[in-house]
Amino acid sequence: MTQRRRWLVAFLLLAAVEFAVGLWVHRRRIDDGDLDALADTLGEVPAGVPVLAAEAFVAPHLRTRLASTADLRWIGRPDLRGVTEFYVVGLATTWTRTLDAMLAGRPRPERIASYRAGDFRIARYRFARGERIALDFADAKVTDARADEHPCRLRSGRFDCGVFGRIVPTLAEIDYAPIRCLGLDVPDGTTVALRAEARGDLLRGHVGFSDFNARLRSDGAVRVEIVIDGETVGRFVVTDVEGLRPFEVALPGDGPVPVEIRIAVPSAGTFDPKDGYVPRPAHRPCLDARVVEILDGGGSP
Amino acid sequence: MNERHPPRRTRRAPSAAAVAVFTVVLAVLAVGGRDVGITRDEGVYMEAGRRYGAWVARLVRDPRGALADRDRAFAFNWEHPDLLKTAFGVSARLFAQPPVAGADGPHDRGGLVPLLPESAAMRLPAQVIAAFGAALLCFVAARRSSVVAGVVAAGAFVLLPRVHFHAHLAAFDVPVAVAILVVVLCYLRALSDPRALPALAVALGLAIGVKLNALFVGPVLYLHYLAVLARQVLRDGVRLRLGLVFPAWTWAAALGGPLVGLALWPWLWRAPFERFAAFVRFHAAHPWYNMEYFGQNYNLPPLPVSYPFVMTAVTVPATVLVLGIAGLWLGLRDDRRAAAADVPHSGPTFFVPVPDRHGRREGLLYAMSALWPLVLIAWPTVPIFGGTKHWFPAYPFLALGAARAFAALVAGLPPLWRAAAACAALAPAALTTASGHPFGLSQYTALTGGARGAARLGFGRGFWGHAVVPLLGSLPERGRIYPHDLHELARRTYVREGRWPEDLVPAPPARADLALYFPERHMTTHEIDVWNAFGHARPTDVLSLHDVPVCLRYDRGPQDP
Asked: Is it the case that residue B4 has pLDDT exceeding 70?
């Protein structure tokens, strides 16, 4: 065989491989039958047990059929702290690097079951040590809030701080993801203090800025201070280039303890090429904070 | 058989093949165009087309009044040259059906021969240019080697998924790629034949009239010419003269091209230098688009230098890419062989700077033409422009390279085997393109894993809010809708064509009854706004390309799955 013919054969092999792979990948895999099978398999998952999509593009399909995947409280969870057991649904895999990041320092959970539902792969995972969320700051009912020492009144699920603005439980876009958090709609220079008393083993949370367009128009930072039982245990500055900045503080765990998170917001507005600094659109800080209780011997969610 | 004069049938074969390619490509685009939604930019260009078309109609009736009043028509969307938008408008004046009763806007009587929906009529000129580009590639490659190689050249261009998508649109990206191909071919001819100088001037002027990419061609051609000249001076001992440093073709391009461009750009006529400077300033300070690349959103320059090269690798099927690169390399090798063999018969002159056509370094020209559009986008100080369409001018030369390599691979095979090899060469691209239609903007190559693979790797899903046509039939007759990235002018065009209910009006999420969302990483906030406003995150409908969502519909109200 001449050199030219060898090249031709190699090229035709490449074409054959690309065509065959194309037949496999250029087709729809998720259809109504797959979604029905998925709903049959996971429809009875108890509330509070997250069902996560391994691949982001699968999530909207899941949300059409599974109530647990469309639950705004779970969509907005940035990590798996406070979770004992969960399900993952995917097409090609049931574990990804995104899920590794969501472990937030916990050991990787054990896969206790695997299923198929149509073309979907489903895995059920359980952590060796169970956890539950004892208190979520985004649940405004259990949080006391002040803005520059001015008490904020709880009205219709949000804190009204008068001239000092509002503190609003919300689902916000931070670092291109939906995050359930307390949005701080406060004027420049305000320091917000959020207080609660909770029994738990650690305080886990995040601070970030919403939304995308505001982040383009401001780099304003906030200063965060964490006070446990009257003692400052953490102080740091967060900027939006950090995305969703995590924090974690150990709690005594032997009884209810006062937890306070203070956030100083020097500049809440954005910069506009024409008008300079403007209060709207706001470069809005948002706080996710949860008191997590570690359950002995696994426990139930 | 007389070897110097091949039979008439053989001589006509490239032309016949080009005509066939033109006809098939135009038919495919015209038919497939109905499935392709109106993109954001098209909505604007179509509105410009209506205004420019009305101006042309007035020019016919009342030339003096139209010429005096031209700025009012052409001020709209002045940031792009007028030529194609005028063609869109004239095409609508000729072929568009009248808008449905109740739809507002100009030009309500329809065209002279109302055969097509308005958007289809507006798209027709760009589709004709795309088909012409494919035919030209076929003709050039067929003349050089064989009709089968010509078909490979045409297919290696129009069967690229992104090119195929854009070729449907009333936009500039495929037309400017074709126009630049014509400019380069005219330049090549003009090096050895002064009769091509007027064609070069006209071609460059037309290209400038299409899109700003054409402004970068001149320096590339001159760099190529300097390389040719350097070899003449260094190898052949040609004496360097001013007439050879700036030969006739440079004057035709530098003076004739801009003059033709100006003649085709009525917006510039009143204050050419001032308005052209404003045009350049607009694009130099162009707003940055958002580009998702390996899971990261880029909206501030510089993009990674690798961006256009990797995006080419994941959107151009491997068979075409490998053939194209191999062919460009073979072209460079052809140049070296020609250089070793050729001795010019007469000295270069001002009008004929490269008397021997084998000394034109054609391979180098094609390689440079295939490379500069990517290098330009990769350049760290260039603003972040949109997607792969911005280096489309590279692809016709990649296609010529593919034909060159294909011809080398199949040399000596019987005709039937050559045809079968051509089918094999183009089959992966055809499959990828056909299966991606009408969402070709979201399509990726098989070896990337298709749309799913690209989503896993973190490449963009698409943009421009066009992926909506399959949902149009299920929209309610009245109510308020959050249209997200669907441009209002695109929506108005759907209304004019009766494809969008007149009483379904746009509203922000807080006041909307239903919402559309076109997934893009930096648009996440808009979907979350809908969730917050509607109180749930359950889509009513998920429009997807091979499972990767390209448009979601949400409805307000109780949403228990």
From this structure: no
From B428, B522, B524, residue closest to A15, measured CB to CB? B428
Whether the CB of A98 is below 8 Å from some CB of chain B: the reply is: no
How many angstroms separate the CA atoms of A257 and B192, rounded?
A: 89
Task: Compute the average pLDDT of residues B397-407.
Answer: 98
Closest partner residue to B538 (CB to CB) among A27, A55, A63 is: A63
The answer to whether the CB of A170 falls within 8 A of the CB of A133 is no
Candidates A287, A291, A286, A81; CA nearest to A196 is: A291
Distance CA A181, CA A221 (A): 17
Q: Between vectors from CA B117 to CA B115 and to CA B119, what angle results, nearest 5°? A: 130
Range of the domain at A83: 32-128
Q: Are both B214 and B290 inside the same structural domain?
A: yes
Contact A176 B297 (CB under 8 A): yes
User: B107 pLDDT exceeds 70?
Assistant: no
On whether the CB atoms of residues A77 and A180 are closer than 8 A, the answer is yes
Per the CB < 8 Å rule, is A15 touching B425? yes
Mean pLDDT, to the nearest integer, of A102-121? 94
Is residue B404 assigned to a domain?
A: yes
> What's the total number of domains in chain B?
3
Give the number of domains in chain A. 2
The C-alpha of B149 sits at a distance from chain A's nearest C-alpha, in angstroms, of 14
Sheet hosting strand A222-228, strand order edge to edge: A150-151, A144-147, A190-198, A257-265, A222-228, A231-238
Tell me if B409 and A7 make a contact (CB, 8 A cut-off): yes
Total count of residues recorded for chain B: 561
- Report the percent of chain B where pLDDT is more than 90: 84
- Which residue among A18, A55, A67 sits closest to B447, beta carbon to beta carbon? A18
Q: How far apart are CA B352 and CA B365, in angstroms?
A: 18
Cβ-defined contact of B525 to A212 (cutoff 8 Å): yes
Q: Which domain holds residue B329?
A: 162-442
Q: Are B247 and B377 found together in one domain?
A: yes
Residues B354, B393: one domain? Answer: yes
Residues B337 and B375 in one domain: yes
